[in-house]
Amino acid sequence: MFGKGYGVEARPWIDKMWGTLRDTPSANWSERLYQRLLPALPHLPPERQRLWTYFKLWPNLAFDIYPDQIDFMQFLPVSPTETLIREIAYVHPDTRREMRAVRYLNWRINRRVSLEDKALIERVQAAWPRAATPRTLERRGGVPAQFRAAHACPDPQSVLPRAPARGWSHG
Q1: Which of 7, 57, 147, 159 has the fewest CB neighbours in a 10 Å radius?
Q2: How far apart are CA 16 and CA 53, in angstroms?
Q3: Distance of alpha carbon 69 from alpha carbon 94, whole angstroms
Q4: SS (H, E, C) 2-34
Q5: Where is pLDDT greater, at 108 or 153?
Q6: pTM, two decimal places
Q7: Which residues contact 66 (CB under 8 A, 6 or more apart)?
Q8: Tens digits of per-residue pLDDT, 77-95?
Q9: What is the 3-state secondary structure (H, E, C) of 33-89?
Q10: φ, ψ at 75 (rounded to 5°)
Q11: In sequence order, which residues have a C-beta less than 8 Å from that of residue 161 and are 6 or more positions away?
Q12: Mean pLDDT of the 109-127 span
């Protein structure tokens, strides 16, 4: 949906990504309809009319700003292998039919991306035991500085043979 690419900016404890919707229709029907149906929004400046912006606040908060809504997410580890994602969307009052459709399409697009991300994470996690040797992470492909720093010096819990006892703290 974003054409040739998107922007990435990494700062201590926060990462920002953004992309402007391209004018050429997407091959995916949900994205194509979103592109076509997104109405003009009088409360937004012209440069934000077709801009998606994502902020990740390390370690476990994120919010996404779309022309049609803002999503807030909290990622809560519930076990060594599972994370609960709490999410809520806020919208500017707009009862237009095309806005209702666009908000539904936004949800569909993001659910598909979440499933793709989940599959990618599972593949990385499956390979992690083989690759979990100390090494220097290079700056490639816009890897956020915080991600590199966090994985260059892993959490002590991550190297334990099993999950620590409830209430355990590494101090």
Answers
A1: 159
A2: 7
A3: 10
A4: CCCCCEEEEECCEEEEEEECCCCCCCCHHHHHH
A5: 108
A6: 0.71
A7: 52, 106
A8: 998 878 899 999 999 999 9
A9: HHHHHCCCCCCCCHHHCCEEEEEEECCCEEEEECCCCEEEEEEEEEECCEEEEEEEE
A10: -105, 115
A11: none
A12: 86
Q: How much is the pLDDT for 80? A: 81
Q: CB–CB of 51/18 below 8 Å?
A: yes
Distance between CA 78 and CA 75 in Å, rounded? Answer: 9
- For the chain, the straight-line distance linking the first and the last C-alpha, in angstroms and rounded, comes to 45
pLDDT band of residue 43 (cuts 50, 70, 90) is very high
Omega of the bond leading into 59 within 30 degrees of 0 (cis): yes
Please name the amino acid found at residue 31: E
Token pair listed for 66: 């779309």
Segment 108-136 mean pLDDT: 78
Region at 141 (left for phi over 0; alpha for psi -120 to 50; beta for the rest): left
